[in-house]
């Protein structure tokens, strides 16, 4: 494509052709490494079949492929990380899963930005794993970050904030921060009163 440096109402002259300015467009491949995506698909299929060992091998192969091709600088890395983390958790290797999930968060921020769906999901995934292993204080930090990102992306009244507040309230109770837990539940009640969600009202009352 070219930009023609001339007025719409001015006749085109030979000199205008010489002054054509090229427009350079580039596009990052959605899948820079088909082998990695194929390995992810294989890993997920084996995982569904209950073959955890085979799924783990395929997930590791996927990560190796995408790292080799992109040097880690592509959002497809996030898919490879998430697939491997899922299998590792099933294999009871929470320590390695946490490490890879943290790398996935770093990649998400680097490749998609701080206020992106991928970054939000990485925070929520880390929170879930940290809660499972009893690292409640760290889990709370990731939930707080998730709440902030959700507000940035979807506004103060985004319904996902209620779910995050419910998780926060539960974690504050486990860390004996009852004042913070009560504040979360009060905030939820205000939001649900605004939205009129009676089902979630009942869930909060049970908390």
Write up this protein:
The chain is mainly α. The chain contains ten helices and two strands. It has a two-stranded antiparallel sheet with strand order 1-2. α5 runs antiparallel to α6 and α8 runs antiparallel to α9 (178-195). It is flat, with a radius of gyration of 24 Å.
Write down the Rg: 24 Å
Sheet having the most strands:
2 strands, antiparallel
Helix-and-strand structural type: mainly alpha
Strand order of the largest sheet: 1-2
Q: How many alpha or pi helices? A: 10
Distance between the termini: 60 Å
Give a quick summary of the entry.
The chain has helices at residues 14-18, 34-48, 52-70, 76-90, 94-112, 117-132, 136-154, 160-174, 178-195, 198-206, and strands at residues 2-3, 21-22. With 207 residues, it is mainly alpha-helical. The chain has a two-stranded antiparallel ribbon.
Would you spell out the secondary-structure blueprint of this structure?
Layout: E1 2-3, H1 14-18, E2 21-22, H2 34-48, H3 52-70, H4 76-90, H5 94-112, H6 117-132, H7 136-154, H8 160-174, H9 178-195, H10 198-206
Antiparallel strand pairs: 1-2
Notable traits:
207 residues; mainly alpha; two-stranded antiparallel sheet; flat; disordered N terminus; disordered C terminus
């Amino acid at each position: 494509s070219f930009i023609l440096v001339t007025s719409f109402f001015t006749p085109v002259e030979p000199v205008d052709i010489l002054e054509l300015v090229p427009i350079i467009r580039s596009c990052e491949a959605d899948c820079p490494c088909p082998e990695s995506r194929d390995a992810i698909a294989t890993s997920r299929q084996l995982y569904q079949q209950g073959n955890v060992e085979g799924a783990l091998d395929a997930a590791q192969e996927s990560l190796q492929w995408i790292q080799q091709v992109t040097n880690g600088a592509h959002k497809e890395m996030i898919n490879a990380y998430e697939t491997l983390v899922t299998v590792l958790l099933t294999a009871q290797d929470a320590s390695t899963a946490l490490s890879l999930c943290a790398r996935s968060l770093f990649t998400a921020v680097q490749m998609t930005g701080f206020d992106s769906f991928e970054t939000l999901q990485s925070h929520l995934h880390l929170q879930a794993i940290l809660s499972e292993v009893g690292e409640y204080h760290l889990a709370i930090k990731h939930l707080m970050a998730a709440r902030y990102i959700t507000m940035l992306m979807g506004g103060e009244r985004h319904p996902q904030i209620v779910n995050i507040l419910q998780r926060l309230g539960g974690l504050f109770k486990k860390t004996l921060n009852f004042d913070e837990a009560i504040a979360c539940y009060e905030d939820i009640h205000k939001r649900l009163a605004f939205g009129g969600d009676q089902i979630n009202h009942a869930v909060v009352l049970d908390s």
